[in-house]
Amino acid sequence: MSPDKLSDLTQELETQYRNINGLVILRNGYISFEKYSNGFGPNDTHHVASVTKSVISALIGVAIDKGYIKSVDQKVLDFFPEYSAGANDFVKRSITIKHLLTMTAPFAWKTNSKLRFEPLDRLRRQRDWVTYTLNIMGQGGPLGRFQYCTAAPHLLSAILTKTTKLSAREFANQHLFGPLGMQEIVDNPMQACGLEDVFLKVKGWIHDPQGYTVGGWGLTITPRDMARFGYLYLNGGVWEEKQVVLKAWIDESTALNQNKYGYLWWLRDENGIAAFSALGSGGNVICCIPQKDLVVAIASKVTGKPYDPWMLFEDFILPAVKD
Question: Which of 88, 105, 243, 260 is the most buried if burial means most Cβ atoms within 10 Å?
């Protein structure tokens, strides 16, 4: 990569993107750029918000590979026999794991257009997050239409626990984080469900009042571990000659479609550059660009109006790549 272009990137980070706490660039499997700001270093963890969703996606793929879950076509309600759905809840009864992964299951959220996505306040105030999410599932729109909903991956986390008998956090430590050499995520019992507790001052990987690991956000990891996870996907699910996630699952998860959203991964194909990304509020990003053998991990402080991180790719990172 061009040292001059990377120097320009450093200057841009210091002047315009001051909310970025850490940025790691992997090229051809090696760290080619790494910068930390605001008092953070390589061993500090950050709440990556909705980047968590893409990790949940990987865990579902691992659970299917290991036989805990049969397929993405299984009905969601099959995993919650204790839940009583109405006799006429045909849509609710038809929703599958795949619908949750692709955000094509309807939920009765009243989306705030200014925030673009639904607020998490309604979810965090519930005593039972899973039952509440099942109650609103199947309402608010037709089945199959894209509707981003932060509550949907929480059901996937609960399904992981019901099938593996481990929390999503424990399952990740054993079958994803551990094999990649990532920091182990320890249990962090929550004392309250205030906004700061569930989003702003997060440690470890938070869980709901029933103990289910939060599926839509709540994971804290280092930028280097973000890059490791991205490289796993870029490398077809192989880490140190071990198949951690099936390549077929990764291909299926990142296949471009009209919604530009795979299995909890955002998809992009512009100007001949195809990318798949895990995106979180405030500018948290794991972006993989296969044709450039490039992974970029960005850990940011969550702010109300962050600069678009894709501008960094277009103006500085991609021009720095030497083919």
Answer: 105
Alpha carbon separation from 275 to 72, 106, 161 (Å, rounded) = 24, 27, 31
Q: Which of 159, 178, 211 is the last residue of a domain?
A: 159
What is the model's pLDDT at position 302? 78
Residue recorded with tokens 């509550």: 151
Q: For residue 149, which amino acid is it?
A: C
Do residues 7 and 302 lie in contact, with contact meaning Cβ atoms separated by under 8 Å?
no
Which tens digits make up the pLDDT trace of 136-146?
A: 999 878 999 99
- Give the max Cα distance, the chain: 65
Residue range(s) defining the domain that contains residue 316:
1-44+260-323
**Residues 6+ away with beta carbon under 8 Å from 223:** 21, 22, 23, 24, 34, 36, 42, 46, 297, 298, 299
142 & 90 share domain: yes
Domain endpoint, select from 138, 159, 180: 159
Secondary structure letter of residue 49 according to DSSP: T
DSSP bridge pairs for 317: none
State the Cα–Cα distance between residues 233 and 274, nearest whole angstrom: 14
Residues of the chain with pLDDT under 70: 110-119, 304, 306
Cβ count within 10 A of residue 121: 10
pTM reported for the whole predicted model: 0.95
Instruction: For residue 107, tell me if it sits in a domain.
Output: yes
| Strand-pair partners of 31 | 26
Q: Give the chain's domain count.
A: 2
Q: Sign (positive/negative) of CA torsion 246, 309, 193, 221?
A: positive
Look up residue 120 and give its DSSP letter. S
On whether both 154 and 79 belong to a single domain, the answer is yes
- Separation CA 20–CA 260 (nearest Å): 25
